[in-house]
């Protein structure tokens, strides 16, 4: 019995392909969730620090979309009516079905004319199949039956009310500079200062001696806040996400050429990136960390509601399962209304092995040092002094740590508010201040 | 200790670093008032000594060091440096300087680029075909109705909402380096080698590299096929991980260069003719003209072109040789000096836009393998 | 000609103005380490085989060569050494040269020694892993142009010669200023039985555009299959390729539309299963051929004949034959079955 049947245009087929390419960068499996009016593709990475979802609108993304849960389950079509169906499937299988169907003019004759996606899930049959039919020119029909396993899809928790920082920018701008970030770097720090936003890719590593040379390139990209369509972010608030995740998101956003929004509260709280286009809503919830080499100017305000949801025992992001297969007794959540799901740790429900414990350096408790920053810098100073070889000429140009200048004056104004001394010389932020940069080469 | 410079020939520097990077992970770099010297000494394989004139790469160049002769010695990882330089390909300006962050010495590149891509305030809802909007930016502009926050104070001198408005992106690339003391680099000296038997101007490196690579592949391919036909299975394991097949390269003083290999399945050789055997400069040699007559190359020239004795021969590793030849991207003239059964030395003379500028020379030392 | 032969002229001497053309045809059968070479008056026949269940044959017609000079040995002079040539007694006492084997990878690598199959611009392709990004990637100005392979003159004139048993097959290629001489060691021939196709008892004959078969075979690779099932039937589905693997199954169905299947002769339904990787090994032929004839006899022996258009307007053919799995084995339908010994998996009736 087919209980999901839908039809896609070739253009939408390509969009599904783009979406699963993006999902593949997070995890090897994809959750497919069928709701009455939308189909959701989502995934969560193995360390549970990133969740990605694509909500495909039944009316706009598909040329035809029909989902009838009640009949298919063989149960009375009452309360189960609105219950979504969810399953898990290997991304690899989907990728090979949707692969490269961008119509090559040479291969015009094998081009897809339409695509039908159906789910067959019968209680009397042991095997579940996702059936995808590509109907091509001249009556060539390609049919795929993919195995899947019933699963409960995960939804990331994100507290909309806690959002205090937000920005919005054209995907193309982000696409322009993500290539600069080296593939080996792990974290991407972002902060705003003096009308410029700086994205810095870096890798946290204890490095000494010869190992220093193996440290990946650290890259900063600075652009004017004017490039953003909307920008409201606390000055000098450092927040970091995974470079890899960010690249995956930007690459995908650029395929639909849209406007990308990021919303967040504080380091060590989730950050959400959203964008939409052509009946597809793309939403990513990413765990963040603070930057250990710089500090926020404001101490972390306690957000009681949010704080409760974020467990401190290693599960970085709490998630709740939804779906027809859920044994949970709680009422099914309404999507996409609010995101206030009951707190239930995803890790407890996952059929897969638990994620490895987070790296010590990623632990916000040890990383985020809002108060005692001087001691942190002291450490570095000691290191410097011990390395006599590195005789350092600290005079002259390094007083550029001054951080107050306006847009108009940048590049010329070197504030003398912080007189040069040893400690300020060492307190160079992870990224060079523009004043310092310009001052050197005047 | 200070070093800062602005790079004016970025492509040259990028290609130079890329060429070195294929041979070794790190380079020892010596900066002083006269020149920039890069030395690559890998654990095995070809060594490179490269001297660049400052003017050929840098525009402004300032160095200040307490070491003798105002010298700074650095150990620089080549791949990160190459990547950093690459990100400056479309830069308006690129500056490099030695700095230190969090106790780690760095070569820090500051790259300013401008971009003219589409309107930042495009509204995706009104774009007819978003995936094509890049190819057709005018439709992008047409869709631009809402421009929150943009269009106010812009110091770019262009009208707000102009889709081709120039925007500036500043990129900082930090390459971690090690500062070497004068004592560390004291023992560093160029390999010494006896006078060559044959010297010859190499044919275009791309052609030489292409043919050499085919020879290397031929050697691997025919070795694999013999394995398939019941040879020892260990042979294939050696092929993949160990050094590559050995090529025989030889030349004579009659303008001929020969590359050859011989395997179970075939023997193959490529011969170039009519190449130049450049004359040596008598002023560089003891005894002048007379001394040159005693030079090994003079004796080799006396021998007839047909005799096998007139050829000086070396055996080189195919994969290593291919990496050496990647210097072809620099577009220089290359003179190969053959020390029969001993070594091959390549001098790569980089072209200068300015004829008066000092020449930059890369020297490659390649040892010959015994048969 | 730098090769100093003995006083005797070579038995075979040919010049092709396009090494590339020879390369493209021979690459179609590059699934095996060795090829058997038979030189005839009409052209050169090169064949390769895999485990006796797959055979590939490329025929280099003499029309592909600008000079084709072949002096067959006389019966009297070569009788003693020639034991493989007595099957062809076409006219009087002329014999074909006995076949020999050569290393196929060595031959292919040699033919492309001047690099026509390489990427267009080595230096810059290696220089820009950021292709597509970086606001237009690596600039190609200045000295990069000096390395365009087009300036190297890939004319690819190629001379082949062979003097007889025990002698190498000699190939000489020339390009501006460089002469490459290759001597391929010739090995004594094996005498493999040709996989027999009963042309008088064909179960199916389908002719279609090669690119469609190529597309379908590629499509099925998505399931990582070990086996490929080909179904032909006078009723729908008329022609169907299917496979299955650990992640699911896939089928490609063709309608009887004459635009699609320009010849469709199927008398009764037939279902045969072949080893997927072997069929897939013909993709180089599928990719360059214009048409393919898919024939299958009642025993299930499959013949794929590819028609390849060559420079100058002619056509060449590359043929493949495959032995099917035994019907009962095919019925087992074990997708990730590693299979036992290959030799037990096919019909050896003949």
Summarize the structure.
Chain A: Residues 321-366, 391-442 are annotated as: Disordered. The complex is a heterotrimer of chains A (442), B (371) and C (350). With 442 residues, chain A is of the alpha+beta class.
Summarize the topology.
The complex is a heterotrimer of chains A (442), B (371) and C (350).
Chain A: E1 2-8, H1 10-24, E2 29-34, E3 38-44, E4 50-57, E5 64-67, H2 69-73, E6 85-90, H3 91-98, E7 112-120, E8 129-136, E9 141-147, E10 149-150, E11 153-156, E12 165-170, H4 171-178, E13 187-193, E14 196-202, E15 218-224, E16 230-232, E17 239-242, H5 243-256, E18 259-264, E19 271-277, E20 280-286, H6 304-309, E21 319-322, H7 346-349, H8 364-367, H9 373-386, H10 422-426, H11 434-441
Antiparallel strand pairs in A: 1-5, 1-7, 2-3, 2-6, 3-4, 4-20, 6-10, 7-8, 8-9, 11-21, 12-16, 12-18, 13-14, 13-17, 14-15, 18-19, 19-20
Helix pairs in contact in A: 1-3, 1-5, 4-5
Chain B: E1 2-7, H1 10-21, E2 26-31, E3 35-40, E4 47-53, H2 54-57, E5 58-64, E6 72-77, H3 78-86, E7 91-101, E8 104-115, H4 137-142, E9 167-176, E10 178-180, H5 182-185, E11 198-201, H6 205-228, H7 234-241, E12 246-251, E13 257-262, E14 266-272, H8 288-293, H9 296-302, E15 312-317, H10 318-325, E16 333-339, E17 343-350, E18 360-367
Antiparallel strand pairs in B: 1-5, 1-7, 2-3, 2-6, 3-4, 4-18, 6-10, 7-8, 8-9, 11-16, 12-13, 12-15, 13-14, 16-17, 17-18
Helix pairs in contact in B: 1-3, 6-10
Chain C: E1 12-16, H1 19-27, E2 34-39, E3 43-50, E4 54-61, E5 67-70, H2 75-78, E6 100-103, H3 104-111, H4 122-127, E7 157-162, E8 169-175, E9 178-184, E10 202-209, H5 210-220, E11 227-232, E12 239-245, E13 248-254, E14 261-266, E15 270-275, H6 276-280, H7 283-288, E16 291-297, E17 302-309, E18 315-322, H8 327-332
Antiparallel strand pairs in C: 1-5, 1-7, 2-3, 2-6, 3-4, 4-18, 7-8, 8-9, 10-14, 10-16, 11-12, 11-15, 12-13, 16-17, 17-18
